[in-house]
Amino acid sequence: MTPLVDSHCHLNFEPLNTGLDDVLQRARDNGVTHMLCVSVSLETFPEISQLSHRNKNIYASVGVHPNEKNGLEPSVKDLVDLAKDERVVAIGETGLDYYRNDGEMSWQQERFRNHIRAAKQSAKPLIIHSREAAVDTIRIMQDEGAAEPGGVMHCFTESWEVARQALDLNFYISFSGIVTFRNAEALREVARLVPSDRLLIETDSPYLAPVPHRGKTNEPAYVRHVAECLANIRDVHAESIAEVTTHNFFTLFKLAAH
Ligand SMILES: [Zn+2]
Ligand SMILES: [Zn+2]
């Protein structure tokens, strides 16, 4: 079985955190050898750091999600300092989320800019979340020179035009269980076009479980279904999707041979 990597999950969230040993066992049983546990707040970052220090197959990121409105606001220096943790391989997740648009979004944009500055200073790639905010996301990436650290557009749901702009900025494109959903025909067309050497897969668990587990709790083991879906779309073997996405993960996050 070719190893698979879940490039984006939240193992510290309920209910994954309470049954973690079983979650990790099912991941192993499905060939998922490595996972990146992504930070959404400074308050919960210590949990992620601990998790990644205790499990050598779990990596960590540091960042504050655009939907975290009331928590600690990170300075560039805070992020750079926390990114010195040897298990931290990326800055994020950061970006823009206008889905729950409540008017004034400049605080999200300022936070996003600070994450890009921190990524440049710490020479670690970005994990970018963008929802109903593609134009501003790309504009700020261009403004702040996000191409320098590079990174990944996680849980990608935008058009090919947006994908192409992100690819031009040196970014990888990561597909989640959404690509398996019945109504995601347009997204599958985008997933067909992304070059192999820029392709990543993820679960974003515990959310967004892929078909055939849609609606249930998601977990890293299910990244296999995302790989199989991409294999169908691109008319290649699932093994080949596993091979390229695992290789891409270790290349993007500058990790030694696994
Ligand atoms: Zn996200
Ligand atoms: Zn996430």
Helical residue percent band? 25-40%
Bin the strand percentage.
15-25%
**Overall average residue pLDDT:** 97
Strand order of the largest sheet: 1-2-3-4-5-6-7-8
Which parts are unreliable, with pLDDT below 50 for 5 consecutive residues or more? none
- Give the tally of β-strands: 8
Any key phrases for this structure?
258 residues; alpha/beta; eight-stranded parallel β-sheet; 9 helices; binds zinc ion
Describe this structure in words.
The structure is a single chain. Helix 8 (223-234) crosses helix 9. With 258 residues, this protein is an alpha/beta fold. The longest helix is centred in the middle third of the chain and has 17 residues, at 106-122. Strand 7, helix 7 (185-193) and strand 8 (199-201) form a beta-alpha-beta unit. Helix content is 39%, strand content 17%. It binds zinc ion (2 copies).
Topology:
Elements: E1 4-9, H1 20-29, E2 32-37, H2 45-54, E3 58-62, H3 76-82, E4 88-97, H4 106-122, E5 126-131, H5 134-144, E6 151-153, H6 160-168, E7 171-175, H7 185-193, E8 199-201, H8 223-234, H9 238-252
Parallel strand pairs: 1-2, 2-3, 3-4, 4-5, 5-6, 6-7, 7-8
Helix pairs in contact: 3-4, 4-5, 8-9
Brief digest:
This protein has 258 residues and is α/β, with parallel strands linked by helices. It has 9 helices and 8 strands. One zinc ion binds next to loops.
